């Protein structure tokens, strides 16, 4: 069972490729994306880390900090970074946690509490559950959890789309429909009464059913 949406993301201290961090302090008033990998020098993760490095300006634009994690040591991350740059055209430009004591993986319920031993003797299959994406808000609450199998690379365009929705719906009392993209119509949240909605949207709304009230995306 993974951590539920709406709970406070566990705080921790960890060694990273950019030095020691305290997670909540590192997030500060930003949003954060914490994403984990079963093992260094694995093929799918190599493509993911390179893809995310190229997309970092898009996350920066949205005020989202990036943090990677693998149970291998930080010096291995540094060597892996060279391979990622060579094969993907970009090296990680964000910190990577060396979770060699499994502390973070256990806190985030990606590995059983009983996990122990030398991380270098573990195979990717031993760590196959360390394939999560956590989106965390400035309030340090978990907003989204995605769990991927080892054989399926993550879709970071979808993660950006989700962040756009999360940030919009945190600011305005709306929800986003299926396959929504930035700039498209949204739905007035069910918590907003019709009387309230009339003051927020004096121009009215489309209502194919009483429980579906469609308006342009708020600015």
Automatic annotation (TrEMBL):
Active site: 45
One GO molecular-function entry: peroxiredoxin activity
One GO BP: cell redox homeostasis
Record flagged with keyword Oxidoreductase: yes
Keyword vocabulary terms for this entry: Antioxidant, Oxidoreductase, Peroxidase, Redox-active center
A Pfam family: AhpC-TSA
One GO location term (cellular component): cytosol
Domain Thioredoxin: 3-168
InterPro entries: AhpC/TSA (IPR000866), Peroxiredoxin_AhpC-typ (IPR024706), Peroxiredoxin_C (IPR019479), PRX_1cys (IPR045020), Thioredoxin-like_sf (IPR036249), Thioredoxin_domain (IPR013766)
Gene3D superfamilies per UniProt: Antioxidant, Horf6, Chain A, domain2, Glutaredoxin
Similarity annotation: Belongs to the peroxiredoxin family. AhpC/Prx1 subfamily.
Protein's name according to its UniProt entry: Peroxidase
Organism from which the protein derives: Bradyrhizobium forestalis
